[in-house]
Amino acid sequence: YNRYEQDPNIQVSNGDLLLTKDGTIGKVAYVADLTRPATLNSGVFLVKPITDAYIAHFMFYVLESSVFKDFLQQLSAGSTINHLYQKDLVKFDLYVPPTKEEQEAIAGILFDMDSDIHRLEKKLSKYQKIKQGMMEELLTGKVRLM
């Protein structure tokens, strides 16, 4: 807790974006539902807008996009050490819709799709478990069909 109070630059808040810069670079997380103080790890960037030009949910999806992943791939091409430097990150050229309303609309559509995917993945997992149980019953002779 003491470290949190000492340096406001490492304080993490709800609505912040976190981006890994060491090892597996480019993993992104949107901070939500944080209930107590949290600080950054040295292997993570805190991504915050310098201006109010974009909303965090929109930027989350930009950093999750294949366009950003391709940018990271180009940076690490030929390198054996995976590290993302701030000087390289600022070179990423991105399109930002001119209005926050459009950004919110884009982020909303993508969020809804993520919710649908999550729901379907849970359903798939449930059916895989049911199938596994049925296989155990049917293929061991515990349950006979005829």
From TrEMBL:
<dbReference type="GO" id="GO:0009307">
    <property type="term" value="P:DNA restriction-modification system"/>
</dbReference>
<keyword id="KW-0680">Restriction system</keyword>
<protein>
    <submittedName>
        <fullName>Type I restriction-modification system, S subunit</fullName>
    </submittedName>
</protein>
<dbReference type="InterPro" id="IPR052021">
    <property type="entry name" value="Type-I_RS_S_subunit"/>
</dbReference>
<dbReference type="InterPro" id="IPR044946">
    <property type="entry name" value="Restrct_endonuc_typeI_TRD_sf"/>
</dbReference>
<dbReference type="InterPro" id="IPR000055">
    <property type="entry name" value="Restrct_endonuc_typeI_TRD"/>
</dbReference>
<dbReference type="Pfam" id="PF01420">
    <property type="entry name" value="Methylase_S"/>
</dbReference>
<dbReference type="GO" id="GO:0003677">
    <property type="term" value="F:DNA binding"/>
</dbReference>
<feature type="domain" description="Type I restriction modification DNA specificity">
    <location>
        <begin position="7"/>
        <end position="123"/>
    </location>
</feature>
<keyword id="KW-0238">DNA-binding</keyword>
<comment type="similarity">
    <text>Belongs to the type-I restriction system S methylase family.</text>
</comment>
